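User: My advisor, Dr. K., asked me to get a structural model of this assembly before our group meeting. I'm new to this, so sorry if the format is off. These are the inputs:
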Amino acid sequence: MDTSSPSAFVNGALLRRYIGQKVRTVIQVIGSDTGSVVGKSTDDLQIVVRGPSPTPPLTTYLEVIGIAESDNSIRAETWTNFGNTFDPQNYNELCKLANGEFKHLFI
Amino acid sequence: MFSSSQFEPNSAFSGGGFMSSQAYESSSSTAKNREFQGLVPVTVKQITECFQSGGEKSGLVINGISLTNVSLVGLVCDKDDSKVTEVRFTLDDGTGRIDCKRWVNETFDAREMESVRDGTYVRLNGHLKTFQGKTQLLVFSVRPIMDFNEVTFHYIECIHFYSQNSESKGQQAGDVTQSVNTTFQGGSNTNQAVPLNPVVSSQNDGNGRKNLDDMILDYLKQPACTARQQGIHIDEIAQQLKIPKNKLEGVIQSLEGDGLIYSTIDEYHFKHVEL
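Assistant: The format is fine. Below is the predicted structure of the whole assembly, which you can bring to the meeting.
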């Protein structure tokens, strides 16, 4: 996979726009299964993340960078712990801006 | 957090001073390609874009501002510290990748770079340089990110800076020119009232308002008024200055007492005392 390609900032609702493309988002883990993690996106939608599980210890919020597989699942390439004090609302607004008026600054 | 801007005198803004470029832009007539010494938050995409449109110029231009010092947030990749004096790595901020170089001359620098590993999110402050067609970042400050709200913050700041500069570029042309008060001299020698521009002269007293005395004197000093032998009737003064007669009476009396005006044919006609 070409990891140098830019990744779009998405939340749950924007994920469907980038199916097959590289995306990044922050989720709050609500459950995990073998080979997949179920998380809540910054706009309170459920996202399933498949692929190699993140290595513990995990914080409340995790950033996942990977390829969007469907409108609610991502195949992860990179996980980053984003801490416990992350503000999901700010990130959500950023996603909207980065895909809207200011898209040309990002993608 | 940001290095201070040594450029703007009024950079009291907490954003590191680059926001005050707005104030500067409206006062300078040519705002394009100015040297801007502040620290600008950018995404890698902005850097690569502006480089492509600018070509091999001396400075990179983003939003009409020639800039060299930038601030970036992203993931460190391909860290190469095989050389003792310099550390190279690539920064991937999700919008693109840029090569970075950090000179390590002191132990402080070395320690700073040790904490930076592949896969770490860092805040970089550095100097943009183009070398052999490639844009590179000469980094002078690297800090691993502890609170990841900084990541969100950085991108929002990039958006903010960009939109601030796009806005101020649009308003740039509308410089407000000071309206100058000009003295209007009526050139009539007849007995008719002298047409008077409501803003007669720029003569102001200390508190910026025109005194009634001055207004009357100014009116009477006009050549058309001084030319009239019999003086100006107080009714006419009231009409021309658009001030009620009763207000004028007291002032005229004091002006007369001061010896600035005198009554002529009767107690209602006045002329300015010419020395």
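One thing worth pointing out at the meeting: The helical segments of chain A are 88-99.

User: Perfect, thanks a lot.
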